[in-house]
Amino acid sequence: MTLSRGARWLLRGAMAVGLAFVYLPLAIVLVNSFNADRTFAWPPPRWTTDWWVRAWDNAAPARRCGPR
User: Fold this and answer.
1) Which of 11, 17, 40, 67 has the fewest beta carbons closer than 10 A?
2) CB 55 within 8 A of CB 63
3) What is the pLDDT of residues 22-55, one digit of tens each?
4) What single DSSP character describes residue 16?
């Protein structure tokens, strides 16, 4: 199937908008996961890895997924 140059640019633009719609909120959540405050603040005033350390050290989800 051969598409015109305009159709290809239109499809590329639609794809870029769709990917941004999916990945931009994920990026915001990822950046906010390093926020030191308990409430949402943009941009995060202080940075920490405390939430990630707690999630990594929490063995309960791993026990639920492993063999019994």
Assistant:
1) 67
2) no
3) 999 999 989 888 888 878 777 888 888 888 888 8
4) H
2: DSSP letter? -
Domain interval for residue 41: 5-65
DSSP string, 25-67: HHHHHHHHTTBSSSS--SS-SSB--HHHHHHHH--HHHHHHS-
Compute the distance between CA of residue 33 and CA of residue 40 in angstroms, rounded to an integer.
Answer: 10
What is the pLDDT averaged over residues 61-65? 67
**Domain count for the chain:** 1
Would you say 25 and 42 are in contact if contact means Cβ atoms under 8 Å apart?
Answer: no
Tokens at 60, concatenated: 């309960």
Q: pTM above the 0.90 mark?
A: no
